[in-house]
Specification:
Blueprint (H helix, E strand, L loop, with lengths): L2 E5 L4 E5 L7 E7 L11 E4 L9 E6 L11 E7 L20 H4 L1 H11 L5 E8 L2 E9 L17 E2 L4 H15 L26 H5 L11 H4 L3 H10 L14 H15 L3 H13 L5 E2 L29 H5 L9 E3 L1 H12 L3 E2 L2 E2 L3 H8 L12 E2 L15 E5 L3 E6 L4 E7 L10 H18 L16 H4 L13 H29 L4 E2 L5 E2 L1 E2 L5 E6 L2 E3 L5
Antiparallel strand pairs: 1-2, 1-4, 3-6, 5-6, 7-8, 7-17, 9-11, 10-11, 12-13, 14-15, 15-16, 16-17, 18-19, 20-21, 21-22
Helix pairs in contact: 2-12, 3-7, 3-8
């Protein structure tokens, strides 16, 4: 393990290189300093005799000046033995981005931590083949004695990102090889998935979440083994005719995982490790992490149905019932590893000379279908769902329940990654609202930081969602316009006038009595006391009652 000594012109800080990194990238914070030139940084290896001497790759500077309070962010590379740590680093201006605008990311993500939405977060923004903004925020859990988040070494439960980084990618490979066709019936590969409407369910239906399968079922409550859970998935009845409607379904993703295993003859995790993660150098991406990695893994649920806090076990109960390897969840990874995957997709299926899938297959699977926003496995950006308001129409991505997201914008040659463990004892009143807003703000800040786009530099918003924090820790109140407030005031005044008139009429009525003449007409006769009596006839009297 190499320890790096970072010497500043006004101070000194030390940072340990992450364990087992082939080319480690670490972002070091030094509060209160703002560097003005790369020359003001020097890096020395603690082991000068080692053949793996560190060198400076890049430096990201506080864009707001020495007095802005922004931390200095230095990208330090150390050549050590072990897994890859992501993309090469580039200064924002070299890839057509504004460092000043990217700095808004720090504020947005940090606000989520401060509000109690999540204890920490890993962020990577990449463009044109390089990592431009890579940073960790907070800690792996709420205890500040825990490990700080480091994008290249902190491991997160990806939740539903498994559907695209795992299952969909495996199907893309099998499609490339001609071993599956999108309109093949599922029963061709899983004979038990048959009968009635099931006979007409295709792989395309499953990928577009239009198979008719329900969103899920509680496998974990019933199944006593992964085999039993698998059989329950296969035997799940359809809720609607295939293709009739959209229903986001974990069970559909599980069926796709079973298809991968049936066609490849390998388990889903083995197939992906051999065909995707190892060839790309994504050595921290896997199902069922080893116990030795526990200290690097962000914890999730504190009181799950399993009865013990989760750290290094898949958070999703159904994925756990399926043995920890499922088509819908179970994958763990780092932000740095995911940056390699995202760049492979931007490159049309190839990275660093290693082709995973054909560029035509990437386009096919990431193009929006004719109905809804879904592509094949992937979702597409419709200015909702965590992709913000500025990514292009061709942008695609996915989110995960644990607080993860990945969005890729081919038009801008850019991707945005956010990993959190917002399911870990969140302290915010509405942690789901926090992560939703932060996801969108992160995508917006990245898109707005592009300076060489076809539309030029886009206008900067007055504030971000995280600045307003609507509904995070206080009940969300509807905002009424001035006209509606005026109308409400008018209605209130009208009601007051009506009540006043009504009361006056009643008082007047109570002060009088009616006297009917013999002809049947009423006459009024005041008594000495001021009250009135009524005479219907000379022989009959009555007194009026108050209502």
């Amino acid at each position: 393990m190499i320890s790096l000594l970072i010497a500043f012109n006004l101070g000194v800080a030390t940072a340990p290189a992450s364990q087992g990194a082939a080319r480690e990238l670490a972002f070091v914070q030094h509060e209160g300093l703002a560097l003005t030139a790369p020359e003001s940084v020097t890096v020395h290896s603690a082991d000068e005799s080692s053949s793996t001497t560190s060198d400076v790759i890049a430096a990201a500077f506080s864009a707001s000046g020495p007095n802005a309070g922004s931390p200095v962010r230095l990208a330090i590379a150390a050549a050590t033995a072990g897994p890859s740590v992501g993309l090469p680093v580039a200064a924002p201006r070299t890839v057509g981005m504004s460092a000043e605008r990217l700095a808004a990311i720090d504020r947005v993500v940090a606000r989520g931590v401060k509000a109690g939405g999540y204890p920490g977060a890993a962020v990577v923004v990449g463009r044109k083949g390089a990592s431009v903004w890579e940073k960790g925020f907070g800690y792996l859990d709420w205890d500040r004695k825990s490990e700080p988040v480091i994008p290249e070494s902190s491991i997160y439960d990806l939740a539903s990102l498994t559907k695209v980084v795992g299952t969909t990618t495996a199907l893309m490979i099998l499609f490339d090889e001609g071993r599956i066709q999108l309109d093949d019936p599922v029963t061709k590969y899983i004979p038990g998935f048959a009968g009635g409407w099931k006979d007409s369910v295709t792989l395309r239906h499953l990928l577009e979440h239009r198979s008719g399968l329900p969103a899920g079922r509680e496998l974990w409550r019933v199944a006593k083994s992964p085999e039993e859970a698998r059989q329950m998935v296969i035997e799940t009845p359809l809720q609607s005719r295939p293709g009739a409607r959209f229903e986001y379904s974990d069970l559909g993703a599980d069926m796709l995982g079973f298809v991968v295993e049936a066609v490849s003859g390998k388990s889903l995790d083995t197939f992906l490790a051999e065909r995707v993660y190892r060839p790309l150098g994504m050595m921290d991406t896997f199902f069922r992490p080893a116990d030795s990695l526990r200290a690097r893994i962000a914890p999730t649920e504190v009181t799950p149905p399993r009865g013990y806090p989760l750290r290094g076990e898949v958070h999703d109960e159904n994925a756990y019932a399926l043995g920890g390897v499922a088509g819908h969840a179970g994958l763990f990874s780092t932000a740095a590893d995911l940056s390699i995957f995202a760049q492979m997709m931007l490159n049309g299926g190839v990275y660093n000379g290693v082709r995973i899938v054909a560029d035509s297959t990437v386009r096919l699977f990431t193009t929006r279908a004719t109905v809804g926003t879904r592509a094949l496995g992937w979702d597409t950006c419709d200015n909702n769902g965590g992709c913000g308001s500025y990514l292009s129409d061709r942008a695609y991505g996915h989110t995960g329940f644990t607080g993860t997201s990945l969005w890729i914008d081919p038009d801008r040659e850019m991707f945005v990654i956010l990993l959190t463990n917002r399911v870990h004892a969140a302290r915010a009143r509405q942690p789901a609202k926090v992560i939703s807003d932060v996801r969108s703000d992160l995508a917006d800040a990245a898109a707005l930081a592009v300076t060489d786009g076809p539309d030029g530099v886009l206008a900067w918003p007055a504030s971000f969602r995280a600045d307003r924090a609507v509904g995070w820790n206080r009940p969300e109140r509807p905002i009424r316009s001035r006209r509606s407030r005026g109308a409400g005031s008018h209605r209130k005044n009208s009601r007051h006038v009506t009540r006043a008139k009504s009361s006056k009429s009643k008082r007047s009525a109570h002060r009088t009595t009616v006297k009917k003449a013999s002809s049947g007409k009423a006459t009024v006769k005041k008594s000495p006391s001021g009250k009135a009596t009524v005479k219907k006839s000379p022989a009959k009297k009555s007194t009026a009652k108050k209502h």
